[in-house]
Amino acid sequence: MPVLLALLLTLLCATARSSPLRFFIDASAFAEGETDLLLEAIAASNGTASVVGVSRGGFLAHKGWHNTSMWDMYWTGREACYRAFLSHLAPGQLVSCTPGSQAITGKASLVATMKRAYGTAASLFVPESFVLPGDYLAFARAVVAAGPATPWVLKEDSHRGRGIAVLPPAAALAAARQRRPGGGAQRYVVAQRFVPGQLLVRRRPLYVRLWVLSLGTHPLRPYLFDGGVAVFGSRQGADDGSNGDDGDGVADGGLTGTSAQGADASGHQAMVVNLWQQDRAAARPWSLRQLWDHLDSRFGAGAATGAWAR
Description:
Strand content: 15-25%
Largest sheet: 4 strands, parallel
Radius of gyration: 22 Å
Mean pLDDT: 80
Helix content: 25-40%
Strand order of the largest sheet: 2-1-3-4
Number of domains: 3
Low-confidence stretches: 1-5, 240-245, 253-265
């Protein structure tokens, strides 16, 4: 999330300098409005930060990596970020990426990295996963071994809940070989075993979005932002109080329900939380603290932190 990292960088870096932290921003690398809070934070920094350049053009426009001596902090996208590193940065210069971070920021690359690092123990951190198309045969063997009652999750190279399908075994095997329209690239890049017994809060599935700021790799200096958010999906099941007074509980294999996000016959697809289709009027995102407090109140003091520690 560029906005969040921008604010943290301003806080951590600008306040410790005797001269203004000079920002060059490639605005064209971000969606409209994504750099607004960064600009506001710089404007409100009482002179500890300044903007020395903003690039709003495309391929031929002047970018920060063309002249690295004019800035202290370069806020840009991945490609220009790497070009800046190739320009031999001076000590103290900051760029909005860490080379090699793509090894954990992509769906397929994260699975591959976890397997290289932990081997079969990777399943302690992520569901049983396969990178497609390379792991297709291993995926097929796992599907057969798991049996006809186990659904599988297929993921496109997208984010925030888009491009995710929860399918029964036969359909999953067929979908794992699909290519994009026109004979293009592989459609799904990862296949994972569906995780049963997922937590419901007020009968809604959820995922937690967290942000980590890295200020270097030698040594590694990561900072976990404590203002994460919980994003909720579609309401599951009937309003019969079967999951507790306010609908907290665990999703079972028989969940059914209709959803704007779609549902297959078993209802598992409705457990996918798609941020692009989320009804925020019906279920506003919670802060991480709100979620922790709620879980502690429902399941006992320390329930949330205990789950987090695991």
